[in-house]
Design a protein that fits this description.
single chain; 210 residues; mainly alpha; Diphtheria Toxin Repressor, domain 2; disordered C terminus
Length: 210
């Protein structure tokens, strides 16, 4: 009959590595590693930022801190019309975003968005002022007081008269659009000089595309 060897208990001193690790060390190491769900959220956030960059106009993208490789990928993506090819390009942009400064890009996108909102508000205000000028003979003096030397009375007065004639004749014309552009230019000039951030009398209509 085979003899059973006696199991001799081993002391912890026989295992130096056991002494160097405290209880719970494995759990602490696991806590330091990002979870799969956290990595997935991070990937989705980078993809979202990449899509936001893809939606920018060229002049907007120029102000975003991205490297040349990512910029080239974005510019190529804007030219792609195939849905499947665009999907692959979006994935490539998302991967390139891993090496980008996501915080700096996010801050730049927020600044770009704020600038766009300010421009939309200014355009809407110009539309409202145009309607006021066409409806009220005293509105030109009010506009002049509000925007000072940035408003050309003679030009605006002439355009108001021509735009009223166009509207009375139920016909579109250049004066109506030119009046809007002149008002917008005067308001932009005043805003740049005064450092204003929000124009007065912001309407609810969308800005004119002219």
């Amino acid at each position: 009959m085979p003899r059973h060897r006696r199991q001799v208990p081993r002391h912890a001193d026989d295992f130096p590595e056991a002494q160097s690790r405290e209880p719970g060390d494995d759990m602490a190491d696991d806590d330091l590693r990002p979870s799969k769900s956290a990595l997935k959220r991070q990937a989705h956030e980078l993809q979202r930022l990449g899509d936001a960059l893809l939606a920018l106009r060229p002049e907007q993208l120029a102000s975003i801190p991205v490297d040349e490789k990512l910029r080239d990928a974005i510019e190529l993506g804007r030219r792609i019309r195939s849905r499947e090819a665009l999907r692959r390009q979006r994935q490539l942009i998302g991967r390139l975003m891993r090496d980008a400064d996501a915080d700096a890009i996010r801050d730049a996108l927020e600044a770009t968005s704020a600038g766009h909102r300010a421009e939309v508000a200014l355009a809407r205000a110009a539309e409202e002022w145009r309607e006021r000028l066409l409806a009220d003979d005293t509105a030109l003096a009010a506009f002049r007081r509000r925007f000072g030397g940035d408003a050309d009375d003679a030009t605006l007065s002439r355009l108001v008269g021509q735009a009223r004639a166009e509207r009375a004749g139920n016909r579109g014309g250049g004066a109506f659009r030119s009046l809007y552009r002149s008002l917008l230019a005067a308001m932009r000039g005043h805003q740049a000089g005064a450092g204003a951030h929000a124009p007065d009398h912001t309407p609810t209509d969308s800005p004119e595309r002219s």
